[in-house]
Design goal:
The chain has about 300 residues and is of the alpha+beta class. It has helices at about 20-30, 40-50, 65-80, 85-95, 100, 105-115, 125-135, 200-220, 270-285, 295-305, and strands at about 150-160, 165-175, 180-190, 245-255. α1 (about 20-30) packs across α4.
């Protein structure tokens, strides 16, 4: 137990089992501890980035700490993003083990959270519904697989690293069956990273995620010979140019009572799948190897026609 300056005040060791967690919860409440931090891979990485000056190694990793990380990962997938608040301690008191929480269904969980005044992380249904409205998903035109040019729509969704930011995207892409050219026209992004600190900066980050990853999916490929890299300039390593940049439409979902999560990478993770899904929707072929160049598209169309 440390104070705000990081000065150690007390130390207590508990067993990594149901009784130990119960004892820990009881002691934290008794001492009126306001915040609890449990070491885990992504949590400690974030602390190392922001508060490295306050960290020091206490003891090497052990079976107990590894088991604790596994428990917190399993538990946060059920309810919480971090075990760092009074409601988290209340949940652990009521459901001290995974076996106790096994029968906790969504309606019962929602009631429990409401009684404790906690909104919780929203379900993906809300984000996907807002994405559907943003992109007019339900009224999108039906593609014509036999037309020379066909427009398709592709959706992708993630709960990043299973515990972080929720993102859903829809891609609108036009495919020329004869040339194999893909034109990515628009991306719609619904983005929930908890509390938003800087909306303008967040939009800029999301736009950068989309544009850079569209470039990587559609254009960028490192070429090399048997002895060296041959992609040495912008001619031999092409990137997305201004006429090819898609329009990016964004819906930011603010959670002012939650912790702020990251927005550095989650959107980028969805771009390849969304484009591939849009191409499949447009012409009925799957692309599974980036970059999605015209020769690959033509080859995929030829293989499908022959099949």
């Amino acid at each position: 137990m440390v104070d705000e300056a990081g000065t150690p005040l007390r130390e207590r060791v508990v067993a990594h089992d149901e009784a130990g967690i119960a004892a820990l919860c009881h002691k934290l409440i008794e001492l009126q501890v306001e915040r609890v931090a449990i070491e885990r891979p992504d949590g400690i990485a974030e602390l190392a980035r922001t508060d490295v000056h306050r960290l020091r190694a206490i003891r090497p990793d052990s079976d107990q700490t590894r088991a604790l990380r596994a428990l917190t990962r399993a538990r946060e997938d059920l309810v919480f993003a971090h075990v760092d608040s009074p409601v988290s301690l209340a949940f652990l008191r009521r459901y001290p083990s995974p076996a106790d929480a096994k029968g906790l269904r969504p309606q019962r969980l929602a009631g429990w959270l409401a009684r404790h005044g906690y909104s919780g992380r929203r379900s993906p249904e809300e984000l996907l519904e807002r994405l559907a409205v943003l992109s007019s998903w339900r009224t999108r035109p039906k593609p014509d697989w036999h037309a020379p040019k066909s427009t398709g729509w592709g959706l992708a969704y993630t709960k990043y690293e299973l515990v972080r930011t929720y993102v859903g995207v829809v891609c609108e892409a036009e495919v020329n069956r004869k040339s194999g050219e893909i034109a990515v026209k628009r991306f719609f992004v619904a983005h929930d990273c908890g509390q938003i600190i800087n909306p303008d900066g967040l939009r800029n980050q999301i736009e950068g995620n989309v544009i850079q990853t569209v470039s990587r999916v559609m254009k960028e490929e490192l070429q090399f010979s048997q002895s060296k890299v041959t992609s040495v300039n912008w001619a031999s390593y092409p990137i997305l140019q201004f006429p090819d940049v898609p329009k990016v439409v964004i819906d930011l979902i603010d959670r002012p009572h939650e912790v702020p999560w990251g927005a550095g990478e989650p959107t980028a993770a969805l771009i390849p799948g969304a484009i591939s899904n849009a191409v499949f929707n447009a012409i009925g072929v799957r692309l599974r190897s980036v970059p999605f160049t015209p020769p690959k598209v033509r080859a995929a169309i030829g293989h499908t026609d022959k099949g």
